[in-house]
Amino acid sequence: MIIATASDAPVTGIVPKFRHLPRWRWVLIVLGLGLVVGIAFTTSSVVRRRSTVPEAIVVLEWPDDPKSEPKIPVNDIAIGRRNGLGPAPDPRLIEALPMGLLPRIGDDGSRPSEIYARPATPAVGNIGSEPRIAILISGAGIGHLATVEAMVKLPADIALALSPYATDIDRQAADIRSEGHEIYLDLPISQSSELYGGAGPRELGDSFDLETNQSRLRWALGRFPGYVGLSGHFRDRLKDGGSAASALAELATRGLLQFDLSNDPINLDADLRTLAIDDALHRLEQTAREKGQAIGVAGTTPLAIDRLKNWSATLASRGFRLVPVSTLLHPTGAP
């Protein structure tokens, strides 16, 4: 007995009629299918890329007029909460050298230490007599995520010092300034107790001759625009009249501030424990009450950033005024 199955059934009438289509129509069908697949793949890739873009970094379009304010997106919480600083570099403050665009005093007397600084909030009433506190976040730029966290979470009056070894440093500097923070150049200075290169391959130090120190200084100065001055361990690591100190004399002629980390700023995160950082912030307040002002320094550690964020939120209620670092470093002692 022969059993007929569905597969044995005649296929007459089931075979698609388009089997006998002309070849040119087959080509059109294949191209059409390929186009649909390509569009679907491209769309999914764009969606994935958009979903991974860090929301903290927003590119602002600056107007042609340098005196105008940037157009800040209304729906951007991170940037909309504060006023960004103007674009850098200022054409008046540029000296074009082979190693880059170095800052200089403008022909009209304009100085980078003033033009690139964050203006202090005008003192009104009793605010002018309150103790002033400034904070510098050093070593920024090496860890991109930590730098973004610092510039977004912390008040704009807190300054950041960028390492010249940072990558994508121009964009990082622009993003930091767009958040309203003034910037310092974190200059690598060698320490006598460290092995050669302990502060990096472009470190300055008295073990190098004047020409080497000048070359390394100018390399660092040309890394990015828009900084107010330089920060580093100068007094405790360099000799007066030494080759490195002689090279650093150039900073004054370029209109830059010099923040010496040897001059007893309070290290806020030498001990990376919550209670230790809180104790350091308490000492910072005590020093400000006794002397009228104080400066604290911290790194880009997540714990230090979080403690500074919480501490600064209630600082005014305790009778202190948070000001930019340049306000306390400026020779005139700007209010």
Commentary on this structure:
This protein is α/β, with parallel strands linked by helices. The chain folds into two domains: 17-52; 100-329, Glycoside hydrolase/deacetylase (TIM Barrel, Alpha-Beta Barrel). Helices cover 34% and strands 13% of the residues. The protein has eleven helices and ten strands. It has helices at 23-52, 77-80, 112-115, 144-153, 169-178, 210-221, 243-248, 250-253, 274-291, 302-313, 325-329, and strands at residues 94-97, 100-103, 132-140, 159-162, 183-186, 227-232, 257-260, 266-267, 293-298, 321-322. The strands form two sheets. Strands 3, 4, 5, 6, 7, 8, 9 and 10 form an eight-stranded parallel beta sheet that branches. A two-stranded antiparallel sheet has the order 1-2. The radius of gyration is 29 Å and the shape is globular. The protein starts with 22 loop residues before the first helix and ends in a 6-residue tail after the last helix.
Task: Please specify the SSE layout and strand pairing.
Blueprint: H1 23-52, H2 77-80, E1 94-97, E2 100-103, H3 112-115, E3 132-140, H4 144-153, E4 159-162, H5 169-178, E5 183-186, H6 210-221, E6 227-232, H7 243-248, H8 250-253, E7 257-260, E8 266-267, H9 274-291, E9 293-298, H10 302-313, E10 321-322, H11 325-329
